[in-house]
Amino acid sequence: MALRSKLGKPRGVPRPVLRHGDAPRAQGAVSLIFLGRQSAARGFAVTFDASTCCAPRRGADNVPAAPHPALTGRVQHDDVLLPGGHFAMGDSFDEGLPGDGEGPVHEVELSPFRIDRTCVTNEQFATFVAETGYVTEAERFGNSSVFAPAVLAGTSDVIGTAGSAWWLIVRGACWRHPFGPQSDLTDMADHPAVHLSHSDALAYCGWSGRALPTEAEWEFAARGGLAGRRFPWGDELEQDGQHHANVWQGTFPQYNSAADGWLATAPVRTYEPNAYGLYQMVGNVWEWCADWFDPSYYRTSQASDPQGPETGQARVVRGGSYLCHHSYCRRYRVAARSANTPNSSTGNLGFRTVFRHLAPAA
Ligand SMILES: [Ca+2]
């Protein structure tokens, strides 16, 4: 029996994205099958906690590191030059989860940098893989975590749950097969590449001569010049009656009306960009940052070009994803912080890059 979402399509039509006019039904049904089943899948933590509701993490088990390709990349990055300068970093609404350390608000000064307008797409990542033969960590583990209603896999390929009932560990899920082995990238060239670990993102960056944004760079970019606001466009999620980001509408995790047009990932240029011309800094997929995560870091962060703690267990992720809902952690805000272990990969986690080697002004 094939286990797949009622929203999903059979093999050969692998695009379980939801558009206006499609009628979603009973999205919790698939995940309920797995409630209470604990997984022995390699490398996955199985205990539920708030940090895994957004994106589950692998445990300490590891696969051997893949060599990172040399700097030979020939892929186009459409980016913008941000001038840097001062900004107030952190949550001025005091609405973050206590363990996330979104405060105190503190002044940060940044040097100029260039940042991608969008997350790295499947097309860009496919170019990287084609030129280097790179094999991602999810492919080497042999599995990754997929949001339950989007799974396109046979029952035997669904190994168990990953921290939350709505995260299924699916054998064969990876960037090429984002919803499981019965899915592929047809019509998804312009969607963000997902199921990529922090190490995978660094490998891509090393090949393309770019870098992951620091957490401070990411937040500066996401704010788009709007000081002290909740979102890149203002303070209201659906400001002016418009959808500005791909998140969750309905009752999480039972029912998603997908009123914003998308159940899972959306093309990277969906919705209006922020004032800096950057698309989907919040919603759609979480984005890896360079920094190690420490919830107390803002109390001691350096004021100029902060780089994060020197060591840690997990790397910062920012921006929230298509799973974000106001009834849960509300981590789709520009100040929201979360983290995942460097070897983790999920169907709602990607990255965008920056470029810092700017020529001095003439
Ligand atoms: Ca959505």
Query: What is the topology, as strand order, of the major beta sheet?
Result: 14-13-12-15
Shape estimate: globular
Helix/strand order: EHEEEEHHEEEEHHEEEEEEE
Q: Report the portion of residues in β strands.
A: 15-25%
Quick structural gist:
With 362 residues, this protein is of the alpha+beta class. It is 12% helix and 18% strand.
Please give a structural write-up.
The protein is α+β, with helices and mostly antiparallel strands and 362 residues long. It has a domain at 82-135 and 190-355: paralog of FGE (formylglycine-generating enzyme). Helices cover 12% and strands 18% of the residues. It has helices spanning 28-33, 122-132, 137-141, 198-208, 215-223; strands spanning 2-4, 79-82, 85-89, 106-110, 113-116, 143-147, 152-154, 158-162, 164-171, 250-251, 255-256, 286-292, 315-318, 338-340, 349-350, 354-355. The strands form 6 sheets. Strands 14-13-12-15 form a 4-stranded mixed beta sheet. A 3-stranded antiparallel beta sheet has the order 2-5-16, with no helix packed on it. A 3-stranded antiparallel beta sheet has the order 6-9-8. The longest helix is centred in the middle third of the chain and has 11 residues, at 122-132. The radius of gyration is 19 Å and the shape is globular. Calcium ion is lined by residues 246-248, 258, 260, 262, 322. This is SUMF1/EgtB/PvdO family nonheme iron enzyme. Residues 78-354 form the Sulfatase-modifying factor enzyme-like domain. One of its GO terms (molecular function) is formylglycine-generating oxidase activity. Pfam families: FGE-sulfatase (PF03781). Residues 1-22 are annotated as: Disordered.
